[in-house]
Amino acid sequence: MKVRKRTLALGLYFVFLLLPLYWLVNMSLKPNEEILGELTLLPQNVTFENYVTIFTNADWYTGYLNSITYVSLNTIISLAVALPAAYAFSRYSFVGDKHFFFWLLTNRMAPPAVFLLPFFQLYSTFGLIDTHIAVALAHCLFNVPLAVWILEGFMRGVPREIDETAYIDGYSFPLFFATVFLPLIRAGIGVTAFFCFMFSWVELLLARTLTTVEAKPIAATMTRTVSAAGIDWGLLAAAGVLTIVPGALVIWFVRNYMAKGFALGRV
Amino acid sequence: MSLALENVGKTVGHETHIADIDLTMEPGRFYVLLGPTLAGKTTLMRLMAGLDRPTSGRVLVDGGDVTGTPVRKRNVAMVYQQFINYPSFTVYDNIASPLRRAGLSRDEVDRRVRESAETLKLGNLLDRLPGELSGGQQQRTALARALVKDAGLLLLDEPLVNLDYKLREELRVELRQIFSRRSAVVVYATTEPSEALIMGGDTVVLSEGRLLQHGATHDVYHHPASMQVGRSFSDPPMNFIPGEVVGGEAWLGGGRIRLPLSGHLAEIAPGRYSFGVRANHLGVVRNRQDDIAFAASVELSEISGSETFVHVDVDGTAWVVQEEGVHSLGLGENIEVFVNPRNVYAFDANGWLVASPPRPGAREAAE
């Protein structure tokens, strides 16, 4: 009896969880007439027209390319900056290290909107508006602290004696870091990359404000479906489905490390 | 290479970890660093290796000052108490890594890795990752990596302590054979007096960051320079009782027990002394006519295999008696503890050795 109750509860949970997703996919495969005309649980006239539009129309697919470009840039910059920082925090003690470490994390506590105006002003001055690097750098403000925090946890798990053994064996620091140390925190790097990717991929406010045409993210492009003739529901749904795909793929690759990542390596 | 420490000290914050150590180590010899936990063994080794910089004093290698030289530029090898290997490298790559860094040719690396793996019986495990090995095999890998290098200074920080008993015995024998063929300075840290005795060589007794005594292991064991060394270099620690020497006799335990002064004790001058006896020289049964007896009450009796450790209270001092065979003694039972005067050490009021029994080898030959 108890088991059945639990099964029922889980079943309901999944229905509620998956219903919007199902609806999105369902809509993306219907023509607009069917979406607006009647309630169908399965598309009566299956069409891939919406997807074809997105993949063939440069206005649409460049949105994805722009998003992917600045997200990748951001992930690479965040990791490149956070790896040495996290190593320093995990291995050395220096004046104010604990306060500094905590201060880094407080950066994430501020809402992105707070930084909108300063970023806009600053990037306008330097002529960076509407470039991929602008968005990537803006997102670093949130991703670098998180990356440092997660990586530090993973690095702390590697015994200091391994570093020393490497120096005794004659490794130089860069060689040790690249060939011995990085492979040991592979999981941490994967999880960190995932978190950076996720934040940057779903962040809309900064991305939209700092871009106009050339580096416009997909989420901003999606607002184009609103026109005088109404909203193109099918196209919007198809774009939504395609936006979920990269995130789902990334989650699939790091699924085994997720729990450890959410514990920020401190398990 | 020879290694010398000159007035080496290390303080961290306000804590003194190592205080004023002077030590000269000759190539081809084996040194045991003996001391309880927190005695400074690991700190001293790290200073020798160059992993840490001493706060005072100098470290000399072959007469040249290397105090500030980083460990990469020194010719050392080290094995830690924890099994430290590169987890993402195979056993082969682990052992090969110091050779590859030294820029040896591929054939030379291969030859030496296989030779060293053979010595430590890792021949059939070369393709495994350290995570797939047992603790003993992991430590063998770490040892192989340290040995393959032919370093002038080989530091082993309690390398066998995390292994099970059987494996420890086995590896200890192997290590002694391997070290005997080396021309390096070998330093071996241990907390166990018995391990120091088995390994032989020289012993350096450390306590609270100070060097207490340095000499051939058996000399140090049989002639501990001070009460502190006696305590450190015996397991269980040496038992002590205060006494007074008056007119050719010593009175112990508040004057109630007479210790006739003969043999090695014959020469000691009147005054106050502490007399020390090792646990294995105490017994609960009278063995010889001239044994002297102490009244004691039993506090705990531990049976370890074929031996019994009896913790007793003698005049308010805790003693441990190590007795062959299994003896069951009840808690609080009043017994007599026997000791032969031939086995008694005498220390002066400052704790320095005044008289010690002759070496057992010599004594047995005389009997």
From TrEMBL, chain A:
GO terms for cellular component: plasma membrane. GO terms for biological process: transmembrane transport. The keyword Zinc does not apply. InterPro entries: BP-dep_ABC_trans_perm, MetI-like, MetI-like_sf. This is Carbohydrate ABC transporter permease. Keywords: Cell membrane, Membrane, Transmembrane, Transmembrane helix, Transport. Pfam families: BPD_transp_1. Belongs to the binding-protein-dependent transport system permease family. It is a multi-pass membrane protein. It is found in: Cell membrane. The lineage of its organism: Bacteria, Pseudomonadati, Pseudomonadota, Alphaproteobacteria, Rhodospirillales. Its main location: membrane.
From TrEMBL, chain B:
GO terms for cellular component: ATP-binding cassette (ABC) transporter complex, substrate-binding subunit-containing. InterPro entries: AAA+_ATPase, ABC_transporter-like_ATP-bd, ABC_transpr_FbpC, ABC_transpr_MalK/UgpC-like, Mo/tungstate-bd_C_term_dom, NA-bd_OB-fold, P-loop_NTPase. Keywords: ATP-binding, Cell membrane, Membrane, Nucleotide-binding, Translocase, Transport. SUPFAM superfamilies: MOP-like, P-loop containing nucleoside triphosphate hydrolases. One of its GO terms (molecular function) is ABC-type ferric iron transporter activity. Residues 3-233 form the ABC transporter domain. Belongs to the ABC transporter superfamily. PANTHER family: MALTODEXTRIN IMPORT ATP-BINDING PROTEIN MSMX (PTHR43875), TREHALOSE IMPORT ATP-BINDING PROTEIN SUGC (PTHR43875:SF15). This is ABC transporter ATP-binding protein.
